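--- STAGE predict ---
source: upstream dedup step, 1 unique chain passed
mode: sequence only
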Amino acid sequence: MRNTIFLTVVLFSGLLFFTQCKNQEKKHKGTILKMKTSMGDMTIKLYDETPKHKENFLKLVNERYFNGMLFHRVIKEFMIQAGDPDSKTAKKDQMLGSGGPGYTIEAEFNANLFHKKGALSAARTGNQANPEKRSSGSQFYIVQGKKFTAEELNIMEQQSKMNSLMPFIMEHIQNPENEAIGKEMQAMNAARNRKGLDSLVMIVADIVS
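--- STAGE serialize ---
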């Protein structure tokens, strides 16, 4: 059964509409919203694993709360953010990002749901002002992410490998038989020779792996 939910938001002067349907994906069940804009279409999934956020978002869509809002924060290769009701009547150069429905939502973190390109997440204020990490009642953002080169991916893979092996690396260099390696690392660290230190650590990582 299909229901149609209309939501109007301005994205670079583009109109958005949502079509709601039941999602058949087995891994993460949820509700699909198809966002149509003059800039192209986006498909959004509201996961069942975050019921409070899902229920609230659908409630706002049904109320047409988002109609006429701007994506007020757009950062290339990072994210686009919307949901501030003040953006409906915003004047040119007006600061936005603090508006909302007057309530927040309890955090619903899930280790299996994480930031990736295309993910929709609830916005929130920082930990210092918001130690409970409660979400904004209406503001959300869509992760843009970035494309990495093969070289960048290789560097990240090496760094990940090095981090996982660090306990074994420390055990290795603390062995009296490897005192010379430990001293060489200390000297490179003192000289802030990061490249040389990383290279030496990778050599030790290959030994202990």
